[in-house]
Backbone:
């Protein structure tokens, strides 16, 4: 009987070891799966990031960028994720802004890129975006008017610019003829080099005349195509249509029209040689090849086409007198009011109430400030924090590097 007990006890111990080993294998497999998933998400982020570095890469509607978690605030880390929908023209700057925001706060940002109209329709049908950055004000305002989001969640975040890009040939007779015109009939290149003695109004008149003549010249050849973004989906496409109508060229343009779903695809039509010219966001045009001349001012760029040393891309800023201002707005997609002020990413004053009473009080002109701490954001939602960061002075002032005007500088915005 004792021998049977010993055998039973030995069998029980072996069974227990087997169960523990099985549990260890399951835990290890679960851990490996989590790591593999993290690597997949990171790899997807790298692939999507590269698509915005080269203007001629394929633009996929609904592409997703995931901001990588890096060194977070030493004070506090909010381990969360928000979903942000952005109009295609603002995708590249938002990628950089989202990465900076994640590094500072630990809040991961997944970005869905498409046309404003497509994203607006998705939100109407219940898409779970936390923040929607449109290329216009009309669609975010419509979400407010339809009581889908709180009226206090609407913010103007940037002012965009329209540009026309076209391909010229340095060896062509037409280019040489244009270059040899008198000063009263200067080409776009010469107008962009105009000295500061000309007023903005004078330059706009000259650029308008130049743009009109260039479009007429391109459309004289039935084979030449000109691209715009879909005016029903993309505000920059709508601005392009307004420009052509104000130049009385819309009907003449229609046989040459090629439409993209958004401005990135429109630019892709041009960079791949499918069209001879294109109306695009000025910010998107900045992705074209490097300048030919370092003497060109910031509002004009000539670049050698990578396919031919004789082909030249000319970027002409479309005068803002030809289209309605492109004020880009966002909404925090919630029926609850977002916490957008005070902006925790602005320098905060330091209260010296805890200082010893025997210490002298320094009354300097500049009040001491301290850096942002996420631990101060208790009760502030992650989408609200993201909008606060986008609207902070440092980020707003950096928008000029991407080809936009700050809403602070342009005098618009809430």
Residues:
């Amino acid at each position: 009987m004792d021998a049977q007990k010993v055998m039973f006890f030995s069998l029980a111990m072996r069974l227990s070891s087997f169960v523990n080993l099985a549990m260890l294998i399951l835990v290890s497999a679960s851990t490996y799966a989590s790591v593999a998933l993290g690597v997949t998400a990171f790899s997807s982020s790298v692939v999507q990031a590269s698509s915005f570095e080269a203007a001629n890469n394929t633009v996929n509607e609904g592409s997703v960028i995931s901001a990588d978690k890096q060194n977070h605030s030493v004070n506090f880390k909010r381990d969360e994720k928000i979903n942000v929908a952005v109009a295609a023209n603002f995708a590249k700057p938002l990628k950089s802004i989202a990465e900076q925001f994640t590094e500072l706060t630990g809040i991961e940002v997944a970005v869905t890129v498409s046309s404003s109209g497509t994203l607006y329709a998705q939100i109407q049908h219940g898409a779970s975006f936390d923040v929607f950055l449109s290329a216009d004000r009309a669609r975010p305002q419509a979400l407010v008017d339809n009581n889908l989001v709180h009226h206090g969640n609407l913010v103007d975040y940037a002012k965009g610019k329209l540009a026309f890009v076209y391909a010229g040939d340095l060896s062509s007779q037409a280019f040489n003829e244009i270059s040899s015109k008198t000063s009263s009939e200067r080409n776009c290149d010469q107008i962009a080099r105009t000295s500061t003695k000309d007023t903005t109004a004078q330059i706009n008149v000259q650029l308008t005349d130049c743009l009109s003549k260039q479009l007429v010249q391109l459309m004289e050849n039935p084979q030449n195509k000109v691209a715009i973004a879909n005016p029903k989906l993309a505000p920059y496409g709508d601005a392009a249509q307004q420009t052509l109508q104000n130049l009385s060229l819309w009907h003449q343009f229609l046989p040459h029209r090629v439409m993209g779903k958004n401005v990135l695809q429109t630019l892709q039509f041009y960079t791949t040689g499918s069209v001879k010219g294109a109306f695009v966001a000025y910010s998107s045009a900045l992705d074209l090849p490097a300048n030919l001349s370092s003497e060109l001012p910031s509002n004009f760029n000539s670049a050698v086409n990578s396919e031919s040393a004789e082909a030249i891309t000319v970027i002409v800023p479309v005068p803002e007198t030809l289209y309605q201002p492109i004020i880009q707005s966002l909404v925090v997609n919630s029926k609850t009011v977002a916490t957008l002020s005070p902006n925790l990413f602005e320098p905060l004053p330091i209260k010296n109430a805890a200082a010893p009473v025997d210490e002298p009080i320094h009354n300097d002109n500049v009040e001491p400030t301290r850096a942002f701490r996420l631990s101060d954001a208790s009760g502030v939602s992650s989408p609200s924090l993201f909008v606060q960061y986008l609207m902070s002075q440092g980020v707003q002032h950096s928008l000029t590097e991407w080809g936009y005007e700050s809403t602070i500088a342009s005098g618009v915005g809430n």
